[in-house]
Specification:
It holds the Pfam family Pentapeptide_4. With 191 residues, this protein is mainly β. The chain contains 1 helix and 12 strands, in the order ββββββββββββα. The protein is elongated, with a radius of gyration of 17 Å.
């Protein structure tokens, strides 16, 4: 069955959880206030698309291609990004909720997370080289065997990162966040 090819189209206020998006390749498309919760996006390709004020919570992402995607003001709870097509995988997040999502062993070099909540997100085995966590809440996020080299966590907060279990060379942290690097030592740090 031939897949659809859709280019430069805007989709607004559509509930794709009830009326599924046509499977295919979407290029330079805009999705505004759309509901993809629990939708099956497996095998879809999104190229240079933007998602604004959308709900993608619990969407199925098996072999989904996200290339140069912008997510803004989106609710994206419980997504398994490690199931995505890894070729060209690139996105940025601005003011999103990514709680309980997983990036297990995903290559996310130079990814921008801005004003984003990442509670209990799994970054195990992830490559976050040169990524930016600008004003992000990383409460109970898991970092284990994670490459955080040259990453910027200066304004990130609520993180716990063990320097012995992760590669953090040249990563940037604020003095206020230093306790998140020393948590396992159970020491009293005061300013």
């Amino acid at each position: 069955m031939k897949q659809a090819y859709i280019e430069e189209k805007t989709f607004g206020k559509i509930d794709f959880s009830q009326d599924p998006l046509v499977k295919g390749e979407y290029e330079y498309c805009t999705f505004l206030n759309c509901d993809f919760s629990n939708a099956n996006l497996s095998g879809f390709t999104f190229l240079e698309c933007s998602f604004t004020s959308c709900n993608l919570s619990l969407a199925k992402l098996t072999k989904t291609a996200f290339r140069e995607i912008k997510f803004k003001d989106c609710k994206m709870i419980g997504l398994l990004f490690e199931q995505c097509n890894e070729f060209g995988l690139a996105f940025q997040f601005d003011n999103c909720f990514l709680d309980h999502s997983s990036f297990y062993q995903t290559k996310l070099k130079k990814t921008s997370f801005k004003n984003t909540r990442l509670h209990e997100v799994d970054f195990t085995g992830c490559d976050l080289t040169s990524s930016i966590f600008d004003n992000c809440d990383l409460y109970r996020a898991t970092f284990e065997n994670t490459v955080i080299e040259k990453a910027d966590l200066l304004s990130a907060y609520n993180y716990t990162i063990d320097p012995e279990l992760n590669r953090i060379r040249k990563a940037k942290f604020s003095l206020a966040g230093i306790s998140g690097l020393l948590a396992k030592y159970d020491i009293d740090i005061r300013s």
